[in-house]
Amino acid sequence: MTPSVQLVSDLVTRIPEFRGAYETHVFHQGGVLPHVFFWDVVQDTVRSFLGEAPGAADWRRTLDFLEEQSARGVLGIDEVIVTSFLGDLPSPQEPGHAIVEQLGPVMAAKFVRIRPLG
Length: 118
Hints:
The chain is 62% helix and 0% strand. It starts with a helix and ends with a helix. By secondary structure, it is mainly alpha-helical. The protein has six helices and no strands. The model has no long low-confidence stretch (mean pLDDT 96). α1 packs parallel to α3, α1 (3-14) packs across α5 (75-84) and α3 packs across α4.
């Protein structure tokens, strides 16, 4: 199992609220495509942050998990988190952008490197 697929598996294990999105993803994609799956993770996390999805995983748990994973320094994991989570967070003019102020130190540093203007 690649580190990026393991990241998805670990996320779903740690935060079971993502199980439904995971099962739908696997059904439609015929397997796990981590970068594609993380689009749903971003959307659900931002909706949770905005209070728009009462049944979604608490955004704090998701950020905590991703911070822990980011701190590991594993290339395949970093690629998914940086490219398909941090890179897809709302822009400054979009609702939910304030979530970037809640990123842990490791992800915050990576976010500033890839999106210096927010």
